[in-house]
Amino acid sequence: MNKDLIGDFAWGGGILVLALVASFARKQGYIDNDTTIRLVLGATGLMVAWTGNRLPKTFVPSARARGARRVAAWSLVLSGLIYAGLWVFAPIPVAVVGGCGAVVAGIAVTLGYCLSLRDKAKAG
C-alpha cells in the first residue's frame, strides 16, 4: 500500500477514534459538548496542517509546479494551524468564522498564485 495512503488512513482513523472516545467521555459526564467539538475540530485542523507539510515532499518535474506546491503547502500549514488554534482557544462563534475564513484564505492564496503562474506562462 502507498505510504501516503497509509498516513491518510491513520489520520482518518485517529480522528474517528478521537471522536468516539470524546463522545463516550461526554456521555459519561467527564467532558462537556463544547470540549468534544473542540477536540475533534482541532484535530481536523492539525490534519490539514500535516497534509500541507507533506505536499512539497512529493516529486513534481516542473519548476512552476514545485513553486505552486510550495505556496499551497505554506497556505495549508498556516490555515490548518490557525484553524486548530482557534478551535482550541477561541470562543466557538469566533472559531467558526475565523477558522473557516483561514481555510478559505489559504485556498484563495493558492488559487491566486496558480492563476498568476498561468498568466506568466501565457505572457512568456
In short:
This protein is mainly α and 124 residues long. The protein is 86% helix and 0% strand.
Could you explain how this protein is built, in words?
There is one protein chain. By secondary structure, the protein is an all-alpha fold. Helices cover 86% and strands 0% of the residues. It has 4 helices and no strands. The chain has helices at residues 3-28, 33-54, 63-89, 92-123. The longest helix has 32 residues, at 92-123. It starts with a helix and ends with a helix. The relative contact order is 0.11. The mean pLDDT is 92.
Structural class: mainly alpha
Order of helices and strands: HHHH
The residue-averaged pLDDT reads: 92
Total count of strands:
0
What is the terminal separation in angstroms?
A: 41 Å
Rg estimate, integer Å: 18 Å
Content of β-strand: under 5%
Give the biggest sheet: none
Annotate the secondary structure layout.
Elements: H1 3-28, H2 33-54, H3 63-89, H4 92-123
Helix pairs in contact: 1-2, 2-3, 3-4
Pick out its properties.
single chain, about 120 residues, about 85% helix
